[in-house]
Amino acid sequence: MQVVVLAAGQGKRMRSVLPKVLQPLAGKPMLAHVLDTARALGSEKICVVYGHGGETVREALDAPDLAWALQSPQLGTGHAVQQAVPHLDDGHLALVLYGDVPLIGEATLQRLVSAAREDAMALLTVELDDPTGYGRIVRDGAGKVQRIVEHKDASDAERAITEVNTGILVAPVLRLREWLGRLKNDNAQEEYYLTDIIGMAVADGVSVVAEQPDHVAETLGVNNKAQLAELERMHQRMLADQLLEAGVTLIDPARIDIRGTLECGRDVQIDVNCVFEGQVALGDGVQIGANCVIRNANIASGTRIAPFSHVEDTVMGEGCVIGPYARTRPGTRLGNEVHLGNFVEVKNSTIAKGSKANHLAYVGDADIGERVNVGAGTITCNYDGANKFRTIIEDDVFIGSDTQLVAPVRVGKGATLGAGTTLTKDAPAGELTVSRAKQLTITGWKRPVKQPK
Ligand code: UD1
Ligand code: CA
Fold first, then answer.
1. What are phi and psi of 34, to 5 degrees?
2. Does 350 fall in a domain?
């Protein structure tokens, strides 16, 4: 099977500099959803028809398995498919998809493709309460599909038909090539209609089978931001339902956003307004508090993340206690039972089992051993304005509050750093190191007072 994706439309009604088919749904361009679905079907070839000014589309999504056909000017859907036909091979079936119909599902398409053969084409249709604007499916007395009539060309009787064309169809390439060559634009819109091939197929003795989608949402197109937002919610609801089905507790399935893939173990609980981006895996019993943003993370079983935490490119061990208001940045590797409290930022660092940084700390480019206590206000000074340096903190270290570790620097096993220390040289194992001005009291000192004017 070979696929043609129509993506030449400008999408003026999006009122955006970003071409319509690049507008993201669930964090991914609409066209990328369609291409991924086409790939999942095992297509041998995918040809994208793009339009004038569509170079950004090509640049954004080009891949070795794609062929690109420019359609300029745009003279209708039939003319669009015609531009792709030179890339297709006879003896195959061609599936026509649309870059602005992003939710089309694999199961529906599998069914549609199975219904088509060298002597039968398949058409995806839906029943709509209000079919205004759509092409209508005209059937004969025996219920056989005869042709499609566009709304603007339809008679009143034809406009009463509620079965409409979704535009998605499968036809044998050899026939398609021939039918498209015979298209005329003598219609209300002076366009070359792809839909006219249905009548030609019937006239040539090729039967036309109509199939319906699993969900109507699969066939909805996007022309403006309101429709995009509607499809986003429908898609998110479907993803939420899959999680619920798999046993995940979602406090409110209407308030979760998944922009990528989210894998969950048993008894995972997710509170409201969480956003998951990229590849996220949550182990058994993981709990995510409200308003967390989690991107590309692997979080092992039993870890709890309190509200308003931000986690990115991070691996967390089992039984960690994170947040509220914690931030882990790319390259964070936490062992088991690590605690990160409020306003703690970790970047490109490993923190081993049982270590804690519970309040207001910056841990950057550091390797922290086991059972280390990082006091409130601790900062690794990892950057001299040009270069980054590492801080090594060995097992069982205790770092007093408000300590700066000026990297590169090492704190030996079991060392203690006194509160307020600015550490510029390595601290020996097992000893107390402190850098602090000696405390002194000036007796009898008087605070200045304002003089009356
Ligand atoms: C088309 C169908 C109609 C169907 C409806 C479903 C035709 C003639 N009509 O109508 O039966 O009910 O879709 O939404 O096919 N495109 C190009 N190049 C062109 C014209 C269109 O790439 O020259 C692309 C558009 O970007 C869009 C898709 O084809 O993704 C459909 O085009 P549109 O103009 O929206 O077709 P409709 O008139 O809605
Ligand atoms: Ca349309």
1. -65, -45
2. yes
Does 182 share its domain with 278? no
Query: For residue 289, how many other CB atoms are within 10 A of its CB?
Result: 21
Ligand 1, atom 39: closest residue by C-alpha: 134
- Token reading at 103: 């939710």
What is the pLDDT, as a whole number, of residue 210?
98
- According to DSSP, the residues that pair with 336 across neighbouring strands are none
Whether this model's pTM surpasses 0.70 = yes
Q: What is the pLDDT of residues 209-224, one digit of tens each?
A: 999 999 999 999 999 9
Q: Whole-angstrom Cα distance, residue 432 to residue 450?
A: 44
The phi, psi pair for 317, rounded to 5°, reads -80, -165
Domain range for 115: 2-219
Which one of the ligands is nearest to 165 CA? 1
CA torsion 145-146-147-151 (nearest 10°) is: -80
The verdict on residue 55 lying in a domain is yes
- Which tens digits make up the pLDDT trace of 241-271? 999 999 999 999 999 999 999 999 999 999 9
Q: Which ligand is nearest to the CA of 82?
A: 1
C-alpha of residue 287 to centroid of ligand 2, in Å: 43
pLDDT at position 10 over 90 = no
What span, in angstroms and rounded, lies between the C-alpha atoms of 220 and 293?
Answer: 29
Q: For 339-346, what is the mean pLDDT? A: 98
Q: Are strands 28-29 and 24-25 parallel, antiparallel or unpaired?
A: antiparallel
- Contact status, residue 1 vs residue 92, Cβ threshold 8 Å: yes
